[in-house]
Design a protein that fits this description.
The protein is of the alpha/beta class. The chain folds into 2 domains: about 20-335, Aldolase class I (TIM Barrel); about 355-450, no CATH class. Helix content is about 40%, strand content about 10%. It has 15 helices and 12 strands. The protein has an 8-stranded parallel barrel, surrounded by 6 helices. Helix 3 (about 130-140) links the parallel strand 5 (about 125-130) and strand 6 (about 145-150).
C-alpha cells in the first residue's frame, strides 16, 4: 500500500511484513562480536535519512539502572534527587519520566514519598521482569506505566533464558497483554538490541506489539537498550550496531510513533552520549539517562549531558533550569559522599578550571578564550584555576580575581613573591595542587591589601 509521507513529501510503501525466524541455533554474530577480540564495526554503506521528531525529551533511570552499580540511595536521597530532577526539567517538563524499582519496602516508600510531592513531571513509572507474578507490584503502587524486560538478542534468549525465539516472544506478549488488560501502558525494554537479529526477531516482535496497541487502543512503548554499549552512530554502519538503522528501521518497518521509542545506552565504548543524540536525530523522541551517568558497569547517558545536548539541538535556552546541575553535583559530593572525578563535564569540581598559565592568561584577558560558555550564568560556576607550578603569575592573578573579585597586576611584587614560594615547593618535590587555604595564607603574607576593605569606583567600601 502506498501512503503519502508528509515529512519527505513522497509516496512510500507502508506495509512491511516480517515473520519471526524461529532459528534452531542462536545467531551470535561471531564475525562482529568475536569475544576473544575487540568487537568489529562492519559497514554496508546503507544510509538512512535523518528525521528528528518535532519534539524530543529525556527520561531518567537514576533510581533503577542507576542503583545497579552503587550502594542504594536512602529514601530521603531519592526524594531530594527527584525534586531536583523536577526543577532541572523546567516548567515544561522536559525530563518527562522517572523509573523506579518496586520490589523492596524501601522502593515502595520512595515511590510513595515522591508521589506525595504532586509533580506532573517527571512522571513516576515502574520496572518489572517479564512475568505475571511481578505485575501485582505495579497495580499495588497505582502506576500508569511500567517497563517490562523483553530481552531480544539470542545471547539472552538462548543462553540466559534457555528458550526459543517463539517461546520468548510468547512470554513477552503474554505479560504485555496483562498490562493492557489492566489499563497500564507497557514499555518493552528491548534488552541487548545492538546484538539482536533485527529482521528475524526485533521487527516481528515490534510489529506484534503495534498490533496489540491498535487492538487495545493504547500506547505500547519500546525502549531500545544498548545493553553493552555496542551501538555506533556512524552513517552507513551495518546492523545490528547501527543506531541510525535501529531507530529508522523500527519506525519504518514496525510503524512505531517516534514518541513511543526511547533510547537507553551504556558507555562501554565511550559513545553513550553520541549514540543518544544520534537516536534523537534519526527519529527517536526519548533519550534515557541517569544523573552523573551512574549506572551498571560503565554507566548510562548522563542526564546533565542530555540536557546540554537537547539545548544544543533545539536552541531553547529556557527548556531547562541548568543551574540545578551544579546543585545536584554538590548534593552528591556533600550528602551522598560520592567522589566525582574532578574533570567530569559539567559536574566535576575542575571541569571549567585550568592549571595552565597560558590558559589562565587568556581567561584574564577574555574568559571566552578558554571557557566553553558562560558557566557563571548557565551553571552558577565561574571559570577557575587550580594552582600548580604550571599556573604562573597569570594563574595566581585569576585565582585572586575569582576569590576577591579584584584584579591585580601580573608584575605586582607580592604576586611575584607568591609565585616564587609556589615554585620552590614544587622544586622540592611537591606533587599536589596548592589548596585554597594555602593560597590565602600566601596572599596574606605577600599581598595583605587584598584583605583590607576595597574602595569601589564610587568611593563606597565593598
Amino acid at each position: 500500500m502506498l501512503k503519502w509521507n508528509d515529512h519527505w513529501h513522497v509516496l512510500q510503501i507502508e506495509e512491511h511484513t516480517y515473520d519471526l525466524q524461529d532459528v534452531a541455533e542462536p545467531e551470535l554474530y561471531r564475525d562482529v562480536f568475536p569475544y576473544d577480540s575487540v568487537p568489529r564495526v562492519p559497514f554496508n554503506m546503507r544510509r538512512v535519512p535523518m528525521m528528528p521528531p518535532e519534539d524530543i525529551w529525556i527520561t531518567d533511570t537514576t533510581f533503577r539502572d542507576g542503583q545497579q552499580a552503587r550502594p542504594p540511595y536512602t529514601v530521603k536521597q531519592i526524594v531530594d534527587l527527584y525534586e531536583m530532577l523536577h526543577r532541572l526539567g523546567g516548567t515544561r517538563g522536559y525530563i518527562r519520566q522517572c523509573e523506579f524499582f518496586l520490589y523492596t519496602k524501601k522502593d515502595k516508600e520512595a515511590v510513595a514519598r515522591c508521589r506525595e510531592l504532586g509533580y506532573r513531571y517527571p512522571e513516576i513509572t515502574g520496572w518489572i521482569r517479564a512475568n505475571k507474578e511481578d505485575f501485582h507490584l505495579v497495580k499495588e503502587m497505582g502506576l500508569k506505566e511500567t517497563g517490562i524486560l523483553t530481552s531480544c538478542s539470542d545471547y539472552h534468549i538462548f543462553l540466559k533464558l534457555k528458550k526459543k525465539r517463539s517461546e520468548a516472544m510468547a512470554m513477552y506478549l503474554d505479560i504485555v497483554k496483562a498490562a493492557l488488560d489492566e489499563g497500564i501502558i507497557p514499555r518493552c525494554h528491548f534488552e541487548d538490541a545492538t546484538r539482536a537479529d533485527f529482521y528475524g526477531f526485533v521487527v516481528p516482535f515490534a510489529q506484534r506489539l503495534m498490533e496489540l496497541s491498535r487492538e487495545y487502543g493504547m500506547p505500547v512503548k519500546i525502549r531500545v537498550c544498548d545493553t553493552l554499549g555496542l551501538g555506533v552512530p556512524y552513517s552507513g554502519a551495518a546492523m545490528p550496531r547501527s543506531v541510525p538503522g535501529l531507530i529508522y528501521g523500527l519506525i519504518r518497518y514496525s510503524g512505531i510513533p517516534s514518541e513511543w521509542i526511547e533510547w537507553h545506552g551504556h558507555n562501554d565504548f565511550c559513545k553513550v552520549l553520541a549514540n543518544a543524540a544520534t537516536a534523537w536525530l534519526y527519529g527517536c523522541a526519548v533519550a534515557n539517562g541517569t544523573l552523573l551517568g551512574l549506572g551498571e558497569r560503565t554507566g548510562n547517558a548522563p542526564v546533565e549531558g542530555l540536557v546540554m545536548e537537547h539545548i544544543s539541538l533545539k536552541g531553547d535556552d529556557n527548556a531547562f533550569d541548568t543551574t540545578v546541575i551544579t546543585e545536584i553535583a554538590d548534593y552528591y559530593r556533600k550528602e551522598i559522599k560520592l567522589d566525582i572525578p574532578p574533570d567530569k563535564p559539567f559536574v566535576g569540581s575542575h571541569f571549567n578550571v585550568t592549571c595552565a598559565g597560558i590558559h589562565a592568561d587568556g581567561i584574564l584577558k577574555n574568559e571566552e578564550v578558554y571557557n566553553i560558555f558562560d558557566t557563571r550564568k548557565i551553571l552558577g560556576r565561574p571559570p577557575g584555576v587550580a594552582i600548580t607550578d604550571k599556573s604562573g603569575v597569570a594563574g595566581i592573578c585569576l585565582w585572586v580575581a575569582n576569590r576577591f573579585d579584584r584584579t591585580v597586576d601580573k608584575k605586582h611584587p607580592g604576586i611575584l613573591k607568591v609565585k616564587e614560594e609556589i615554585d620552590r615547593q614544587f622544586e622540592e618535590g611537591r606533587v599536589t595542587v596548592i589548596s585554597d587555604e594555602e593560597m590565602l595564607e600566601l596572599l596574606r603574607a605577600h599581598v595583605p591589601e587584598l584583605f583590607e576593605p576595597h574602595v569601589g569606583a564610587g568611593g563606597s567600601r565593598e
